[in-house]
Amino acid sequence: MAKDEPKIPTGRVRRAAKVGRLAGGQTARQYATKAANLTRGEEARRAAAEKRQVEAAEQIFDVLGQMKGAAMKVGQVASFIDTGGLPPEFQERLQAKLAELRDAAPRVSFNEMKKLIESELDAPIDKVFSEFEEAAVAAASIGQVYRARLADADEGEGGREVAVKVQYPGVASAVRADLQNLGLIMRVAKRIAPGMDAKAMAAELRERLTDELDYEHEAQNQRAFARAWKGHPFIYVPEVVTSLSTEKVLVSEWVDGVGFEGVREMDDATRDRFGEIVFRFFFGSLYRHGHFSGDPHPGNYQLMPDGRVAFLDFGMTKRLTPERVADEVKAIALAMEEDAAGLRTHMAAMGFYDPEDEKVSPDAVLAHFQDAAVWYLEDRELTLDPKTAGQILIDFGDPRSEHWQLIRRGTAPPESLLSARMQGLTLGVLGQLECTANWHRIACEWLFGDPPSTPLGEREAEYFGRGRRPAA
After folding, report:
1. Is 392 in contact with 370 (CB distance < 8 Å)?
2. Which residues on neighbouring strands pair with residue 163, listed in sequence order?
3. Bridge partners of residue 317, in order along the sequence
4. 84 with 386: CB under 8 angstroms?
5. Is 35 exposed, middle or buried (0-12, 13-18, 19+ CB in 10 A)?
6. Residue 130: CB partners within 8 Å, gap ≥ 6?
7. Neighbours of 295 (CB within 10 A)
8. N or C: which end of the chain has fewer CB within 10 A?
9. Tens digit of pLDDT for each residue in 164-209?
10. Residue 237: left if φ>0, alpha if ψ -120 to 50, beta else—which one?
11. Which residues, 6 or more positions from 154, have their beta carbon under 8 angstroms from its beta carbon?
C-alpha cells in the first residue's frame, strides 16, 4: 500500500460531512427514481426500486467500509438484516460486495502500525517476533490483523505462529465521532435496511463499542471462551498470548482455515455441517453458558483442516444472568405450547410490552413470536436460503411485516438487545450458506436437555457428559 494513502478520518466534522454527502446523494437519487416512476408501469417500478436499492447498498457499503469505526459496524449489521427480499441476482451482487470489503487491502501503512505495536509492547518488533508479515491478512472495523511468529522466549512461546491484531491509530477518536453522529449514520443505513431498529441499534453500539476499543477487555473475553470450549470436538477458540496483549494490540494463536466465502462454494454436506456448528456455537453459548459473542458476521470464523471451526473475534460479547436466560427459555417454551396468554404475560414481565396495553393481544404476541422464530420452533427439516431467512427477518421486526403494528407497540429491553441481534445475524449467515437441518431438534438439546439429534449433537453430548461445563 502506498504510504501517502489517505488516513482514516477521525474528526466528527469530517466524518459527518462524509456521511452527509452520502445521505444527500441517496436522497437525490431516490427522488429521481420516484419522478421516473410516474411514467412506468408497476413491474417497471418494482424493477427500478430493486435496482436502486442494490446500487444504494453498494455505495453505502463502500463509504462506510472505508470509514471503519462505528460507521463500518453499522454497515455490517445492516447488510445481514434486509437483503432477503431481493431477487437472487441482486443478493449475489451485494454478497460479492461484502466479500470484497471483508477481504479489502488495509488502509493504514505497515510503518504506522509498526510504530504502534512497538510502543504498545515497549520493544522493537524484531525482538518480539522472529517473523512478521507486513501485509495484513484481515481488516475490520477498528483494526487489522497480521501473521507473525514469536521469537524465542523463556515462557516457552518461541516459534509459535500468532495472529497480531492491531488497532488503527486514531480509531478511538473516529469511534467517538461516530457515536456523536449516529443519528446521521443510522439514516443512511436504513436506506438498505428499513426494518432496522435504529434506536435500539444506536443504544447497543454506544454500550458495546467502548469495550471493543480495549483489546485487554477482548483478550479477557477470549480467554473465557477458550476455557469454556477447551477440548470441544468441533468448536475451537484460539489461545491468547497474554504477555503480549495490551489495550491496542492483541496477540493470539494463529489458526489456518477456509473462510466463509470458501465454505459457501463447498458441497451441501459440508455447508450443512458448518452451519450447524455456527448455530451450536452462537446459540449454544447463549443458552448453555449465558456468555455469548454478539458479532457472528462471516469474518469471525473459519473451517479448520481437521473439520473443527475456529471462532476468532470476541470484541462484542455479553453475559446474561441465569435468571434472564431462564426467562428467554420460558418464552420459547410458551410459544411452542401455544400458550398465548402465558406468553403475553411473560413477555410483559421481561420488558417487551406494557402489561396494561390493551391493544397488545395475547394472540398477536403469539403469532409474532412464532413467525419470528419459526425456523427453530417447528419440528421439521428446513433449508435456510436467503429468501426464507429474509422473510423471517422481516417478521422479526420490519415495517413490511404483517406484525408491524404490534412491533411498534413493543420495546427492546437492554438485556435482550445484543442477543436479539446475534440471533438475527446468525440466521442471516445461515441463509447465505443455504444449509439444511432440523434446527428445532438441535435447539431443544440446550433449551430443554433433549437427547442429541445429529452426529454432532452426539459428540457434543459426550463432551458435556464428561463433566465439561462452561467456565464462568
Report:
1. no
2. 147, 252
3. 293
4. yes
5. exposed
6. 149, 150, 151, 152, 158, 159
7. 24
8. C
9. 999 888 777 666 666 665 655 666 666 655 555 666 666 666 666 6
10. beta
11. none
